[in-house]
Amino acid sequence: MSNLPACPLCNSEFTYEDGGLYICPECAHEWSAQAATEAVEQARVYRDAVGAVLQDGDTVTIIKDLKLKGSGGVLKVGTKVKNIRLVDSDHDIDCKIDGFGAMSLKSEFVKKV
């Protein structure tokens, strides 16, 4: 198993090194080894709908009615979500909402309390 970084664009694990560059064979993206180390050092900053920085354990409120896939329910505006956990995926927030259970939300639909 190689210790080369995954492609920052498509997350492919099949990258290879050519001189001082890393190359992704799937999307043809090229980046330098220096850029790869700088990207790892930079932590992602999660922001809510109004630009406030979010952190693990924060309490947020929902700013828009959100339809739930599968159950047919709706999360109403103003629903308070406590003790959020930030994750690096399509939906930025993992949480538990009373009456609905475990859920993933996008940070653009919440506001920090």
Automatic annotation (TrEMBL):
<dbReference type="InterPro" id="IPR004624">
    <property type="entry name" value="YjdM"/>
</dbReference>
<dbReference type="Pfam" id="PF03831">
    <property type="entry name" value="YjdM"/>
</dbReference>
<feature type="domain" description="Protein YjdM C-terminal">
    <location>
        <begin position="47"/>
        <end position="113"/>
    </location>
</feature>
<feature type="domain" description="Protein YjdM N-terminal">
    <location>
        <begin position="4"/>
        <end position="32"/>
    </location>
</feature>
<dbReference type="InterPro" id="IPR013988">
    <property type="entry name" value="YjdM_C"/>
</dbReference>
<dbReference type="InterPro" id="IPR013987">
    <property type="entry name" value="YjdM_N"/>
</dbReference>
<dbReference type="Pfam" id="PF08274">
    <property type="entry name" value="Zn_Ribbon_YjdM"/>
</dbReference>
<protein>
    <submittedName>
        <fullName>Zinc ribbon domain-containing protein YjdM</fullName>
    </submittedName>
</protein>
<comment type="similarity">
    <text>Belongs to the YjdM family.</text>
</comment>
